[in-house]
Amino acid sequence: MKKVAVFVLFSALLMLSIALAAPMKTVFCSLPYTETIGKLGRADFLIRIPNPITNWNGGLVIYCRGYLPGVPDITKVLSSTNPTSSTLISLGYAVAFSNYGEGGFCFQKAMIRTHQLTEWIADNYDVTGKIYVIGISMGGSMALELGAKYPDLYDGVIDLAGPKDYGAAYADGMYLASLPDVELLAEFARRGVTTYPLPPIPSVIKLFLQLVNTDTVIECGGTPESKPQAYERISPLYSAVNVGIPTVTLHGTKDGLAPYAQSTAYRNAVNAAGHSDLYRLYIVTGAQHGDVALFSQMFQEPYRAFYQLADWVEDGIPANPSS
After folding, report:
1. CA angle, residues 74, 77, 83, in degrees to nearest 5
2. Domain map of the chain by residue range?
3. How many CB atoms are closer than 10 A to CB 79?
4. How far apart are alpha carbons 51 and 275 in whole angstroms?
């Protein structure tokens, strides 16, 4: 079983969370998995293990959700529209995720609680295989940061359209929110955005952008101009030098909220740091921010990203070159 040395702060928080862990509810049923729901510290978590237990290969996938204004029901963190959990379970992996215990742009607490959950599962379940971390949007950024920070705990990373530079993301959000309605829709059309993930209603789009930016300012203690280092601490672009495990990004060409140019900049930073052998960037033509087309490339052609990552980590077969 894996053990990692952690900073005193993280160790203290982990011990506190375990001490505060609420009784768990385990459901045994005819489904292809056994589901356990519990609480670790202030966050709800859910674990699904292949059923029967003999189908479990000992591996674990930790999923990191994206930005949501409120705290989601833990059973709805992975929506029914994407097959991530069921496919991974059919491949023999246990799947777990946290609702972070908070809504909004709770990046730092979400990192801590996801790391806590990973270690707690590794310490309390028979995790004998590899541990992967997969995230979408804000969760994609978190997955990259977790992989870079804890290469002795995690074995591989898949980032789905995670922003790589939150200072640039803040500036882009401010720019979009400032546009007159007609110009805003024109800008989204230029980027190829249609109706996903936001409806083409200027007032709704602006409200969302303003909410995200306000939450980001609260998280970082100021704007990028006043607190640049706070934005750098949560931006994978600045931790690219620490990539130490096989890492894959999937990013759509029509992503209007986290432009894929951020991922190409991240790839350039990884390459400049001498880690090109550990990173793959796959550009998904036509995919928008976090849509089904993006998720599907984890298991379908042309990329089959998770299969490539597992072969890379478990069998030493490097994934295909970046697109």
Report:
1. 130
2. 8-162+287-315, 167-229
3. 11
4. 38
Residue at 253: amino acid letter = T
Q: Which tokens go with 162?
A: 């995670």
| Average pLDDT score over the chain | 89
Picking from 145, 93, 159, the residue whose alpha carbon sits closest to that of residue 115 is: 145
Task: Give the residue from 196, 311, 192 showing the smallest Cα distance to 253.
Answer: 192
Helix, strand, coil percent values for the chain (each to nearest 5): 45, 15, 40
Would strands 43-50 and 94-98 be described as parallel, antiparallel, or unpaired?
antiparallel
Which residues is 183 bridged to in the sheet? none
| Spatial contact of 92 and 154, defined as CB atoms under 8 Å apart | no
Q: What is the pLDDT of residue 81?
A: 56
For the beta sheet containing 279-284, the strands, ordered from the edge strand earlier in sequence to the opposite edge, are: 22-27, 33-40, 43-50, 94-98, 60-64, 131-136, 156-160, 247-252, 279-284
Q: Does residue 238 carry a pLDDT above 60?
A: yes
Burial code (b: 16+ CB inside 10 Å, e: under 16) for 129-145 equals: bbbbbbbbbbbbbbbbb
* Contact call for residues 269 and 178 (beta carbons, < 8 A): no
Return the pLDDT at 80. 53
pLDDT band at 221 (very low <50, low <70, confident <90, very high): very high
| Residues 38, 18 contacting (CB under 8 angstroms) | no
Range 294-303 average pLDDT = 94
165: closest CA among 68, 244, 263? 263
pLDDT single digits (tens) 110-120? 999 999 999 99
* Six token digits for residue 150: 């804890």
Q: Can you read off the two tokens belonging to residue 313?
A: 């980590």
Number of neighbouring beta carbons within 10 Å of residue 67 = 23
306: Cβ contacts below 8 Å, ≥ 6 apart: 88, 91, 132, 134, 158, 298, 299
Fold category of 8-162+287-315 in CATH:
Rossmann fold (3.40.50)
